[in-house]
DNA sequence: CCGCTCATGTAACTGGTTACATGATTTA
DNA sequence: TAAATCATGTAACCAGTTACATGAGCGG
């Protein structure tokens, strides 16, 4: 058989979620994404449902009937093969972009901050700081709540908090350096 | 006229690069992505060339003839309309995902670290730490080189360094907490 | 002149989004 | 029972990737 292509991020993540949350419906998986604090997980139906079927077709997920009330549905479980795929996806042999600098839309934009008049540049940075701080604080709350709960889930949120704090620190440094250079010129 | 759809990340970034690098060919833009330290910018030809034409079609880029030797080519410039579009893309009214937690493939994977036997979990984290540290150090070199040069370019790399350092700190914390909980149980 | 890299593309594919559809279930 | 929301989809679209093609310039 041809070496099956690597899983996408979404596929790996769904596989992991089904593995972590026992037998569950696609919608249960979807809800995780919908309520995720990371806005890049859209959890759109058009992504999840076909994806789950795809994983099932690959033999990584198995399904069992599951009737809630009058309505019939399927609950999925990770197969032995699925676990192997999950572990393979986890690592530790990653393509470059897994450990490399992650994308950051804010950083991308600030690369071109010079396109704005100086007064607006400062305001721009202040606005960004406020937004990022809000997000960070909300994540910190989430982390506190997860504290005693599942360790891995906690560490996941913890990672987000640390990265957001670093971004915040960067924005502050950026603003101060900007004020400095403006005063000097 | 219908409210023109928002620019994609790649479109905004290309627009910014053409704005920053004066009149330049699509290939010059491509080279920036190809030599970028952020691995998520692929700079594939199939993305750049059609994209530049798209921006030109929208009136955000203008082109001028440009002959190197016998070969004819086009160099592009940002139009006044293009500058307006760039500024609009920059902000400061961002969709959620711009200031929110950025994606992080490593964090995504470690969410499911429990799928590995405990001994491998620790090794996994050590491997990740080493890789991230390498990337961070290489970025730090780049930052040092950019030091006196363009301020905004420097701050861009600086942001990457700070985020990578935060990820590193997170991995360390993760590993220590893991060792702790393993010893305790 | 040969082969290598530069520079500019193009065609097919694909994963994910948007927007819609539909029946089941809950709530006012 | 009417309205809202839950749960499960599907079809069209789209941006970006992969893989290929092609000619120009250059180093041996």
Task: Describe what is shown at a glance.
Chain A has helices at 9-20, 26-34, 45-57, 80-90, 96-99, 105-110, 118-146, 151-184, and strands at residues 61-68, 71-78.
> Largest interface by residue count?
A-B, 68 and 67 residues
Unreliable residue stretches of chain A: none
Order of helices and strands of chain A: HHHEEHHHHH
What is the distance, rounded to the nearest whole angstrom, between the alpha carbons of the first and last residues of chain A?
Answer: 66 Å
Report the oligomer: homodimer
* Average residue pLDDT of chain A: 93
Give a structural overview:
2 copies of one chain form a homodimer. Chain A is mainly α and 185 residues long. In chain A, 64% of the residues lie in helices and 9% in strands. The first copy, chain A, is built from 8 helices and 2 strands. Chain A has a two-stranded antiparallel sheet with strand order 1-2. In chain A, a hairpin with a 2-residue loop joins strand 1 and strand 2. In chain A, helix 1 (9-20) packs across helix 3 (45-57), helix 1 (9-20) crosses helix 4 (80-90) and helix 7 runs antiparallel to helix 8 (151-184). Chain A starts with 8 loop residues before the first helix and ends with a helix. The relative contact order of chain A is 0.09. Chains A and B meet through helix 1, helix 4, helix 5, helix 6 and helix 7 of A and helix 1, helix 4, helix 5, helix 6 and helix 7 of B. Chain A binds a DNA duplex (28 and 28 nucleotides) through helix 2 and helix 3.
